[in-house]
Amino acid sequence: MSAGAAGAASPVPGTRPAGPPRAFGPLVRVTVRGLLGRRRSLGVVLLAAAPVLVAVILAVGGGLGDPETLAREVFATLTLGLVIPLAALVLGTAAIGTEIDDGTVVYLLVKPVPRRTVIVAKMVVAISATVAVTLPATLVSGLLLLGTSAPGLLAGMVAGSLLAAVLYSAAFVALSVFTGRALLAGLGYVLVWEGLVTTFLPGTQVLSIREYALAVVEAFAGPSALPGRGAAVELPVALALSTVVLTLAFVLGAWRLGRFEVTDTG
Amino acid sequence: MTGRAPASVELVDVSRWYGNVVAVNGISFELGPGVTGLLGPNGAGKSTLLHMIAGLLRPSAGAVTVDGRATYGDPDVFRRVGLVPEREAVFGFLTGREFVRLNADLQGLASPGSATDRALDTVELSGAADRAIATYSKGMRQRVKMAAALVHDPAVLVLDEPFNGMDPRQRLHMMGLLRALGAAGRTILFSSHILEEVERVAERVLVVVSGRLAASGEFREIRRLMTDRPHAFRLRTSDDRVLAAAIVARPTVAGVALEDGRLIVRAEDYAAFTGELAGIARAVGVSIYELIPADESLESVFAYLVRG
């Protein structure tokens, strides 16, 4: 009864091989429970209420000009520019970053479960949570400002929100596995890179999730009349790069978690 | 339940460094069924060793194997090994039962529900199993962590400072549990920086100091090494110099010094020295006001073992 292949061939009685299908559900459930139990999740819901609130004020106030322009402005600056990336950042880092911080991730890692299964479960939960919170914000604020007057634009904003929520969440989950300061790094990306650099250096817009989402909006709604609010990236390019971002987030996240080493004091 | 094949854990010339810091330095040992204590001061590299055995850390050099299979990078090893981490954090929003069940599910057990009940029973936590872990005491958290590590009935159980933060009653219970698990044929390795804890549970001891294996073997031998070492005493007397002159020639005394106005005596044989000290003092007419062991800290014990 020596080592090696013998051990592999004879599974421990009472156990059976655990594959992704069996581990996935429990991983998703515990992640969801963790998100629901955190106070910052409530903060995300409040954050998502901001575009709706702004839309209510603008709709009640009225007389501020073309509703389509208003809707685009609110969406591009507030919903897509701040609410979606920040919600994705908070939920994405909460999905795994907090577990890495407090050490509870160890209980998920000392299991015969491929690390990629852990990453996929975390991403699925982060994406679903971000979509669940931000999609209603886009839809309700859009309806308040547009009514049913511009179904193309509304559909575009919804599709763009969806894409942005998926990409930001996946990217921030992966970022959480790489650095303990994912919140800071993510804020830097959203506020400095997408907020400033891409504004002043148009060439960098091709590396901006926001631009991919805007490209999707325009595909539905047609180009914007707003100066500086047009999408800088063509739709096929945006979709191709979106696929790259999603794939990279998964591959790099799984790779890094696979090499993840737990170091304690002493 | 306990009829599983005994596991062997083997380390061959294992080192681990973090950048320029060497945490574990060329350690080799082999473990079989039973309870082994890993004793050493804080920062000696105990956690690093345990995490390498549990498959969570890659050795920088050497080989760590369980039943001949390298532990790092092989998720199947986790079926054979259970780890109780030192950090207290658990999923506080889950109940004890949900937490243990999560571990059972992730292990892919055929009947996770009954395995969960059994593990909770083993650590005597069934009564509180349906409360959120956030409401647990330190001892209960330690036990729920233990249940999580035991739920797949591992042949090897690795525990990092399992007695930390426990009150005496919880400590006793945990000690009894470890002894019983060891007697049932599991290979158990737990770390501690407290000699008495190791003494009461472990049959064998590994002493680690500064990343090196300073001593290993039966507990009695280690204990003898520790008590037979030279001891230092600090004395406060009515006349330090007279007493120093009187005792310096004694064979029980290795050296005498005056430090900061205090008489420091290094005794070769501490039992004989303390036995004859009063008589000598009386003979030279010196009163002893105070006699304090000067180096009873665990660090000095370890330091001696490393030299020895």
Describe the structure.
The complex is a heterodimer of chains A (266) and B (308). Chain A is mainly α. In chain A, 76% of the residues lie in helices and 0% in strands. The radius of gyration of chain A is 21 Å and the shape is globular. Mean pLDDT of chain A is 86; it is low at 1-20. In chain B, the strands form three sheets. Chain B has a six-stranded mixed β-sheet, sandwiched between helices. In chain B, strands 2-1-4-5 form a four-stranded antiparallel β-sheet, covered by helices on one side. A four-stranded antiparallel β-sheet of chain B has the order 12-13-11-14, with helices on one face. The longest helix of chain B has 16 residues, at 168-183. Classes of the chains: A mainly alpha (266), B alpha/beta (308). At the A-B interface, α2 and α5 of A face α1, β6 and α2 of B.
Brief overview, please?
By secondary structure, chain A is an all-alpha fold. Chain A has ten helices and no strands.
Topology (elements, then pairings):
The complex is a heterodimer of chains A (266) and B (308).
Chain A: H1 5-9, H2 20-36, H3 39-61, H4 67-102, H5 106-109, H6 115-146, H7 151-178, H8 182-200, H9 209-221, H10 235-258
Helix pairs in contact in A: 2-4, 2-6, 3-4, 3-6, 4-6, 4-7, 4-8, 6-7, 6-10, 7-8, 7-9, 7-10, 9-10
Chain B: E1 9-18, E2 21-31, E3 34-39, H1 46-53, E4 61-66, E5 69-70, E6 81-84, H2 96-106, H3 112-122, H4 138-150, E7 156-159, H5 168-183, E8 187-192, H6 195-201, E9 204-209, E10 212-218, H7 219-227, E11 231-237, H8 240-247, E12 253-259, E13 262-267, H9 270-284, E14 288-293, H10 298-307
Parallel strand pairs in B: 3-8, 3-9, 6-7, 7-8
Antiparallel strand pairs in B: 1-2, 1-4, 4-5, 9-10, 11-13, 11-14, 12-13
